């Protein structure tokens, strides 16, 4: 079964600093990867996804992520964060075959951007 | 489109009471899901459905039941509420056009407290 590990439960940064949120997945088979963001008291919305092709994926709000198959990682990055990026971020994965309608989520990383 | 809607937004239950959390989507999505979110634990899948009349258990189904009589609606029932069911509940759906990629769309959540 797929598992997803988010290595940091909390990441505090200052405004305009770069940030990287780390995510590793377990499966060695073909996988689809996602990053979702959850603003306070809201549902989850998709930031970006990796399905195939280019390993560098660009998403909304200036975020990007890089798929690294050899390291089974899908880290999320932003070169300069804003106060409004304060939110919880979830990495998720599904296998590309079989029961591919189910997502496995990491436990989340709370990003806090301080002025 | 309203997307995925959930009612109620908040609810307080007494131990042993029952209730139904409502979920509806207007995107003609075949697949629907119920998750619970507990602090620091990410999202856990309770039940899912791949179409009207078809439901199956997820990772944490105990204490819950679902039904799917229409494509649009996917209610979640708690029969005998327990304090361990205090959580935030999210409903999600995914598009038949992107089923293989499992991009899920989330509702705003229902915050349930059992006292």
Short description:
Helix content of chain A is 0%, strand content 52%. By secondary structure, chain A is mainly β. Chain A starts with a strand and ends with a strand.
Output the radius of gyration of chain B.
13 Å
Residues in β-strands, percent of chain B? over 45%
- Please bin the fraction of helical residues of chain B: under 10%
Which series of helices and strands of chain A comes N to C?
A: EEEEEEEEEEEE
For the biggest sheet of chain A, the summary is:
6 strands, mixed
Number of strands of chain A: 12
Count the DSSP helices of chain B.
0
Measure the end-to-end span of chain A: 41 Å
Number of strands of chain B: 11
Query: Number of helical segments of chain A?
Result: 0
Termini separation of chain B comes to 36 Å
Write structural notes for this entry.
The complex is a heterodimer of chains A (115) and B (115). Chain A has strands at residues 4-6, 10-14, 19-21, 23-25, 31-38, 44-50, 56-58, 64-68, 73-78, 87-95, 104-105, 109-114. The termini of chain A are far apart. In chain A, strands 2, 5, 6, 10, 11 and 12 form a 6-stranded mixed sheet that branches. In chain A, 0% of the residues lie in helices and 52% in strands. Chain B has 115 residues and is mainly β. Chain B has no helices and 11 strands. Chain B has strands spanning 4-7, 10-13, 19-25, 31-37, 43-51, 54-57, 64-66, 76-78, 87-94, 104-106, 110-114. In chain B, the strands form 2 sheets. In chain B, strands 2, 4, 5, 6, 9, 10 and 11 form a 7-stranded mixed sheet that branches. The chains are: A mainly beta (115), B mainly beta (115). The interface between A and B is medium-sized, with 23 and 24 residues.
